[in-house]
Specification:
4-stranded antiparallel beta sheet, 2 helices, alpha+beta, 39% helix
């Protein structure tokens, strides 16, 4: 988890992080970019949007918890949020 600063997990089942964006349009733009990333990898996070706050939760349901893909996509999510 050291390399995934800002992310929390619940016993290796999920990886989640809350992102605070500048406003609602920026939050929606972030979610659109995230959805394109998810589609590309055919792996989709749970997303909760609250005005300018976006909570992203990665897990692999059919594997019963976290996989390397979840960790890689968490890293990619950080990159999207920093743009």
């Amino acid at each position: 988890m050291r390399e995934h600063s800002g992310w929390t997990n619940d016993g290796l089942q999920t990886l989640s992080r809350t992102f605070e964006l500048a406003g609602f349009p920026e939050a929606i733009a972030f979610v659109v970019k995230l959805s394109m990333l998810a589609e590309k990898h055919n792996h989709h996070p749970d997303i909760d949007i609250r005005f300018k706050t976006v909570r992203v939760l990665w897990t692999t349901h059919d594997a019963g918890g976290l996989t390397r893909l979840d960790l890689a996509l968490a890293e990619a999510t950080d990159t999207l949020a920093s743009r």
